Amino acid sequence: MKRFPGRALLAAMLLLLGLPAGAASLPDVPGHAVASAHPLATRAGLKVLERGGNAFDAAVAVTAALAVVEPYGSGLGGGGFYLLHRAGDGKDFFVDARETAPGAATGDMYLDRDGKPVPSLSRDGPLAAGIPGTPAALEHITQLFGRNSLAENLAPAVRLATEGFPVDAKLAARIAASAHRFSEAAEAVFLPDGGLPVAGDRLVQNDLGGTLMTIAEHGSEGFYRGELAERLQGGVFRDGGIWSLADLARYRVKEREPVRIDYRGYRITTAPLPSAGGITLAQIFGMLDALKWPSGDDTAARHELVEAMRRAYRDRAVYLGDSDFVDVPVGRLMSQEYANTLAAGIGRMATPSETMEIAGLQENRAKGENTTHFSIIDDDGNRVAATLSINTWFGSGYMPAETGVILNNEMDDFATAPLVPNAYGLVHTEANAVQPHKRPLSSMTPTFVDGPRGVFITGTPGGSRIITMVLLSVLAHTNGLNVEQAVAAPRFHHQFLPDRISFEPEALTAEQRTKLRARGHELEPSSRRFGNMQAIHWDTRRNRLEAASDPRGIGDAKVVRPRSSP
Fold first, then answer.
1. Cβ–Cβ < 8 Å for 228, 404
2. Is the terminal CB of the chain with fewer CB neighbours within 10 Å at N or C?
3. How far apart are CA 1 and CA 146, in angstroms?
4. What is the pTM of this model?
5. In what order do the strands lie in the sheet with 492-493?
6. Contacting residues for 350 by C-beta, under 8 A, at least 6 apart
7. DSSP code for 19
């Protein structure tokens, strides 16, 4: 069992460093909580906690369970980001398990002979797949942060895969919508006997169960080397992909320093590059401070918030990429001085995106309900926010035979051609161009908020809208909404291009729509609700623990209080 500094040692360390005594005076957590996108995954996390594991063990269990029961959103063939807080010493960690480009990747690999992009190449089939990071993360988090063995943490997922579980209506609908993209091995799993499953049918995934058992026994080496690696690479290569065994063998997760943002008495800890989330949030919060937001009426406040989104997403397109490969001016982009400059350009009227000096941009519509998120806190105060993905529904649609693993299509998150939109309508420049072993820019933004109201753990899927949804949830929390209200609140979004406000119907009143149009904004009501947020609030003043799963989804949030609690 791993041992970490206790609260008494933490208090002594803080005093030596001259930090406020209150920073070490948190009460004992009144229980533990798990919020995830699927009830069976939440149950897997709770089971691990109740059998002596900590939040980090539970995160591994939930990750693996989601790979089984929510295969359209995440899985062993994908990657993601884990934000961890270790209560014993108060330290935060960011585990980057983002996919990497194969070694044979080139900047023109998704262009036709005339140099024009072919979107299907970066979205469908094995050529669209980056080298997965999730299996490495499962071992890394268990070994460095957990109490259990990897086999113990993966056991719930193995049972779900080999014994099966009832298909829910959402999974049945996703299979029906994606079946035309499935490879032969994927069809055999998700279209048993050649027909579409319906809610209530039992889905058994024996090959995936076998892959999980291999990882449980041999660790990530069992995935990235040996017989399983040969199956993965062999299938990809035979069917038009460019993976090599060396690509799999060289994959490693990376621990990075989280982004920290101070906003009106709250400390926001969130995702660094290759996530765009931290820098984009820092810019928006900086502009809001410069504007002394909210100013004026509700319509003016929404206008200013949209204009801040527009400017931050513009910089996302121009500057951001994998900082291991490109020089991103992070300090300047996140500075208050730069935020002041951006905010100075926000007036009463909308700023047309076409006037903001990026030539050659193409428009596309933003979409995306895929990816997944979960939030966890344990009895000791350890916590996890994790956002995981295989990109679009069922990723590339490709499953190498005898693996049970659906591969991602995260290569589409690169700039497959400069300024050409990806599946979510996002545009990129050379900073996010395809390069061997590079990690594509992401919107996944797992986040902690610490401040006067206690601890808030949040995150969501949603493609290009992830960052603005997390933003709105943090603003809701800092403005006093409870966790259920913050998760359920109607959402609106602007991402520079397309130049329009996308919004859920309840997000804007008829009067606000009229006034925003008068300010020059184009509005686009969303035909579907977006996001699937999973959040936890530990109110340290009342020492009360609450959790919420987005009512837009089928997830489950559970708080388990100590038996002695009333």
1. no
2. C
3. 8
4. 0.94
5. 492-493, 501-503, 523-525
6. 303, 306, 307, 519, 520, 521
7. -
Return the H-helix or E-strand segment holding 378: none
Q: What is the pLDDT of residues 333-378, one digit of tens each?
A: 999 999 999 999 999 999 999 998 664 444 444 444 579 999 999 9
Handedness of CA 343, 344, 349, 352 (dihedral sign): negative
Instruction: Answer yes or no: are the C-beta atoms of 100 and 278 closer than 8 Å.
Output: no
Whether the predicted pLDDT of 493 surpasses 80: yes
Query: With DSSP H G I counted as helix, E B as strand and the rest as coil, what are the percentages for the chain, rounded to 5?
Result: 40, 15, 45
Strand order in the sheet with 91-97: 254-256, 91-97, 79-86, 383-389, 372-377, 32-36, 556-560
pLDDT digits (tens, 9 = 90+) for 269-316: 999 999 999 999 999 999 999 999 998 899 999 999 999 999 999 999
Handedness of CA 14, 385, 396, 203 (dihedral sign): positive
Pairing of strands 383-389, 501-503: unpaired
Asked if pLDDT for residue 119 goes beyond 90, the answer is yes
At 48-57, the pLDDT tens digits run 999 999 999 9
- What span, in angstroms and rounded, lies between the C-alpha atoms of 279 and 261? 9
Residue type for position 475: L
The residues carrying an active-site annotation are 371
Asked if residue 223 lies in contact with residue 211, where contact means CB atoms within 8 angstroms, the answer is yes
Q: Is the pLDDT of residue 5 over 60?
A: no
Give phi and psi for 87, each to the nearest 5.
-65, -35
Length of the chain as a residue count: 566
Token pair of 488, please?
Answer: 């359920």
